[in-house]
Write a structure and sequence with these properties.
With 329 residues, this protein is an alpha/beta fold. It has one domain: TIM Barrel (Alpha-Beta Barrel). It has eleven helices and 14 strands. A twelve-stranded mixed beta sheet has the order 9-10-11-8-7-6-5-4-3-12-13-14. It has a two-stranded antiparallel ribbon with strand order 1-2. Helix 1 crosses helix 10 and helix 2 runs parallel beside helix 3. It is globular. The two termini are 23 Å apart. It binds S-adenosylmethionine. S-adenosylmethionine (SAM) binds next to strand 5 and helix 11. Monomer and homodimer. Pathway: Cofactor biosynthesis; molybdopterin biosynthesis. Belongs to the radical SAM superfamily. MoaA family. Catalyzes the cyclization of GTP to (8S)-3',8-cyclo-7,8-dihydroguanosine 5'-triphosphate.
Amino acid sequence: MLIDTFGRVATDLRVSLTDRCNLRCTYCMPEEGLQWLAKPDLLTDDEIVRLITIAVRDLGIDEVRFTGGEPLLRPGLTGIVERVAALDPRPQMSLTTNGIGLQRTAAALRDAGLDRVNVSLDTLRPEVFQAMTRRKRHEDVLRGLEAARDAGLTPVKVNTVLMPGLNDDEAPDLLAWAIAHDYELRFIEQMPLDAQHGWKRDGMITAGDILTSLRTRFTLTPEGQEERGSAPAERWIVDGGPHRVGVIASVTRPFCRACDRTRLTADGQVRTCLFATEETDLRTALRSDAPDEEIARIWQTAMWGKKAGSGLDDPSFLQPERPMSAIGG
Ligand SMILES: C[S@@+](CC[C@H](N)C(=O)[O-])C[C@H]1O[C@@H](n2cnc3c(N)ncnc32)[C@H](O)[C@@H]1O
């Protein structure tokens, strides 16, 4: 079991498969100049599957989410999914992706055992997409989303970050579009995890702003607290149902008390939180032929260092050295 000193038990593992991405979202990565992880430092497919096996078989992980960087850029993704799906017990498996290339791979990923996808999309306007991601790939994302839904990787969730002056007027349009396409929309507050360290609290669009904007067009009724559980998104029933909209208020209403996550970076470091400033190395043990029990023990010990909260509210808050793309969002 992966229990921390506050009694929280991690059952949800986020695995970053690469720090590379084919977009350059302004709130995440600089246009150029970001140093990539060195190839020899990246875990191999076999090493990733071994760590996930230990996590699922010995440490109580029952949900695995692949992320990055952009996980679809990892050539071995389908094979990794297939091998994880064969584990006993079989964990729930999902993918957080920008959707580019999903049009070609959604069916194969489902056949390999993937259960669900979250696709990130911030705007319905191609020119705003280009301004926010510095790439002309809007249409590819829309096609990827449709392919995921058609392949049955459902519920397809759409993750949206609103940025002032760029797409902050789009919340109601995005919700109407998501409902029409049977996607579940979730807004994520912008967090201080960009490589450029450009985040400013007084510049960010808050959950409160998002709800005010949505309520200009929709009636929102809060879903019961018990339905949230450890899920980061607070959800609202839209116009009486059945559709829902979520808001992940990581900054203004953090959900740390119910956190059930542990993270693995693409170079084999355990992180107990997105905002952790310390990591625990598993790669060295992996590569020095440590037995599974030893690796499980290192992972368990790492969890004892998990802090009560993200520390965002503390004036002495320090942004982690690694940007979101290298942690695995
Ligand atoms: C880092 S990406 C990695 C997975 C994949 N490339 C994708 O686009 O979903 C995961 C999620 O983190 C979000 N994200 C990145 N930087 C963020 C930030 N500074 N604040 C809030 N969310 C952020 C992205 O919008 C995306 O939804």
